[in-house]
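Researcher: Last one for today. Full complex below.
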Amino acid sequence: MTNYNTVLQLLYKISINCLFFIFLFFLINFEKSLGYFSVFNSGAPSLISIAIYLCIRKLNLNPSNILIFFLGILNDIITSVNLGISSIFFLLIKLLTENLSIFRLNDNNQQAWLSFTIVFSLSFFIIILLNIGINLSFFDINPLLFHMGITLIFFPIINAGFDLIFFISRLIKTDS
Amino acid sequence: MVSAKSSNKKTYKVNRKSNFVLILLCLFLVFIGKLDLIAIRNIQAFLFDFWAPVTNVVNKPMREIAVIFEDVKSTGSLREQNLKLINENRRLRALNSKAKNQEEELLELRELLNLLPKFKNKIVTGRVVTAPGGIFANTVLINAGKDYGIKIGHPAVSSLGLIGYVVNVGLKTSRILLTIDINSMIPIYLTESNWPAVAKGNNGELLEIKFLSSEASPIDGETVETSGHGGRLPPGINVGKIVKGLSGEFYIKPSVNFQRMTYLSIITNGKKLSDDYKKFQGFAPLQKPKPRLVFKGLDSSGTRQKGFED
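Model: Here's the assembly. Have a good evening.
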């Protein structure tokens, strides 16, 4: 009986992982296709980093490192960046988010925004340095700042969206 | 695995360790990728081929929505555009008659000078599958690959000018490195001031001008074309125009709008280069150094002088 339960649990975890991977894969493509809009000419918001952060902080879901690693590789293939760059970025986001959650820095939405800013900026800065090291030349700073700014603007909107969904689901539950 | 977050410190430590190991693995991958191994390139090309249809399908709704947005935006300035087109049409008619006369003159002069004939390039046109742009890489994927004779290094052009060149080829897809990418370097010449240089992308909107002689004085607004030096890109492809930055430095504004690309053509050079064409040193002559003796029997270009031959 116990064996049967463990197998079921394992299958449940695998299915959740698969769904999570598919969701993030579509999010990567969505992020990339935002480039068709003239507003995002310089750079699209990093929706994946917002998704990883909110999954850990809001949904209490801890995506596995391997899943994030493969997701990064996939992102590198789609965007044609050096293999491994996106994986490092996503893994850093996860690592820093977990560390911040240990210190319990963010309780309300404003603090969540602040902590996301710290997590995202730090990870992004490391990636910029890594890219400069790889290419041995400096990038134009405008697209980088635009990408960072637009991600930080998008974060509270998506966060508020999550809150709204939670609020509505709670209302439905209490009514029933 | 995606699991309910536990407060267990042990699990957290194990997670963190695996995180560090994976980051190290990624750094190793970055290093391997930078070595530009053929095996890695082939794997990437295979994966491009594999993911291209999926990416195409997933991106299609957003592409269509973006097109609708652009159409709606352009209807607002319909009257302005109409007036602009009427003026442009008038100007082009005048230019057309002038060009016809000059074309005849040019043909006669070519014949007199016995100039090498331009060869007709073989062109393959493909549809852009992915959206252009990115923070660290500016590339696009097109749905034509080795099947159509595309090889690494072939230039990609549109009706407006140079877009970039092929950096990776799969069986059904090719990856084009845009001229604005940080890894892109294109030999150019300034058409009016007649100086050769190299246009380098920096992931921004403008291209930097490198290796331009200190004697050169670019003219704001002058056209920049490929010089053909190095033999990788054919000469005479429009790259963009010179613009002066706020700091007084000169940049190149690409003539192509990279956001609005749906189709692009690859020049595949079907014919083999003749020996005469191989000797051709580019569209604009490189500024040759003045011959002066550096070492005994050698001039500044390193060629042996007469009288010192073995």
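Chain B touches chain A through 57 residues (CB under 8 Å). The CA atoms of residues 188 and 226 of chain B lie 4 Å apart.
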